[in-house]
């Protein structure tokens, strides 16, 4: 295992997971088999957990709303937060769950079509879970940058100035 090579591969594919093994090998000046083997090993070790496409849903006709839900819980004896997190992340509506420091325990990211749909999920599935003390829902109104990528190009004003 070449730690330095792994970190370089990860940085490159984090920005663009569509890079071909050949291109990675050329960029890193190593053999294609070495790159392929490192990637395969990192997939087996769950360092690389998946490959995703970043989509700006605001530029499509699909209605999609993202919410971030703060969840306070009472940790379970002997299991801490892990068992509660597992119950939450097993809901198909949940896109991400993070254990947080600060004023609440989990940040749950959810996607739905409407505020009502997300609110119904929170009130009927999330809030009733044992150990959940409280929830606070925040709706994302606009995304400017996601996963290190600016989603909307800066608009250039092409109007000409009017002078007297």
Automatic annotation (TrEMBL):
One of its GO terms (molecular function) is sequence-specific DNA binding. One of its GO terms (biological process) is response to amino acid. SMART domains: HTH_ASNC. Residues 69-142 form the Transcription regulator AsnC/Lrp ligand binding domain. Gene3D superfamilies: 3.30.70.920, Winged helix-like DNA-binding domain superfamily/Winged helix DNA-binding domain. It comes from the Bacteria. One of its GO terms (cellular component) is cytosol. It holds the Pfam family AsnC_trans_reg. PANTHER family: LEUCINE-RESPONSIVE REGULATORY PROTEIN (PTHR30154), TRANSCRIPTIONAL REGULATOR AZLB (PTHR30154:SF34). This is AsnC family transcriptional regulator. The lineage of its organism: Bacteria, Bacillati, Bacillota, Clostridia, Lachnospirales.
């Amino acid at each position: 295992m070449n730690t330095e090579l792994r970190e370089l591969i990860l940085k490159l594919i984090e920005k663009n997971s569509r890079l071909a093994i050949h291109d990675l090998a050329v960029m890193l000046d190593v053999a294609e088999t070495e790159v392929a083997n490192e990637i395969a090993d990192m997939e087996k070790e769950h360092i690389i957990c998946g490959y995703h496409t970043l989509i700006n849903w605001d530029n499509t006709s699909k209605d999609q709303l993202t919410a971030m839900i703060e969840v306070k819980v009472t940790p379970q004896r002997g299991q801490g937060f892990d068992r509660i997190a597992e119950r939450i992340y097993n809901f198909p509506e949940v896109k991400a769950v993070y254990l947080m420091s600060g004023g609440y325990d989990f940040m749950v990211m959810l996607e739905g079509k409407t505020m009502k749909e997300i609110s119904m999920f929170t009130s009927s599935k999330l809030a009733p879970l044992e150990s959940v003390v409280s929830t606070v829902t925040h709706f994302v109104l606009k995304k400017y940058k996601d996963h290190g990528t600016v989603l909307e190009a800066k608009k250039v004003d092409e109007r000409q100035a009017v002078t007297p």
